Amino acid sequence: MSVQLVIPVKRNTPARLIGLGLTVLACIGLMWLIVGWVGAIVLTAELFLLGRLLMRAAHGR
User: Fold this and answer.
1) How far is it between the farthest Cα atoms of the chain?
2) Integer Rg of the chain from CA
3) For 61, which DSSP code?
4) What is the pLDDT of residues 1-49, one digit of tens each?
């Protein structure tokens, strides 16, 4: 017997999107304070690419 657990990955409500946007801005601001402009740009790009890879893996692509 096989049991499959399905977890919804996408829930786009306005409050969730606003909260996510504020979280992203806070994280980028914190990275800028710690490592400066170049570091914040590099870390943002790395996190964006990692997020895309994780989303693709979650969708089985």
Assistant:
1) 54
2) 16
3) -
4) 677 777 776 777 888 888 888 988 898 888 888 888 888 888 888 888 9
**Per-position DSSP letters for 17-32, written without gaps between them:** HHHHHHHHHHHHHHHH
Ordered alpha helix ranges (H), the chain: 14-58
Q: In whole angstroms, give the CA distance from residue 31 to residue 49.
A: 17
- Locate 16 and state its tokens: 């969730």
Helix (H, G, I), strand (E, B) or coil at 9: coil
Count of positions (residues) in the chain: 61
Q: Could you give the CA distance from residue 42 to residue 38 in angstroms, rounded to a whole number?
A: 6
Give the Cβ contact number of residue 3 at 10 Å.
Answer: 4
* pLDDT at 1 (0 to 100): 66
Q: Is 13 strand, coil or helix?
A: coil
